Predict the 3D structure of the following.
Amino acid sequence: MTHIEIIQEVYKNFAQGNIAGVLAHFDKEVVWIRPGEPDIPFAGTFTGMEGLGKMLTLVGRHIRLKAFTPQKFFSNENTVAVFGSDTAEAVSTGKSYTSDWVQLFTLKDDKITRVQVYMDTLAIARAFTP
């Protein structure tokens, strides 16, 4: 598989709710960075498989995804950049947000070792504000 195909497989598994399939593509020492802490409940730096599992649990607990659309994929050596957007509802407030995003994946030996997310943190934080 190419690096882009690996990332596409991760998104496919996520869309199908196949969390084991998602996790299979990550290195055990993965670092996932999401901006917006403390205003966004699923923001922060998550390390290792335990941290990744925690982040995915927080996402599932705090938002209802209405749309999650990876749109463009670019690869350069060991990095894949994905441009996309999502729309979700904050469970605690019932407010919705839409955000364009970029997710940068770093891979080594066909495993994802690092993810850096760039998104509209203001729009998302406002959805969590009562």
Q: What stands out?
A: The longest strand covers residues 63-76. The two ends are 45 Å apart (CA to CA). Helices lie at 3-15, 19-23, 48-62, 121-128.
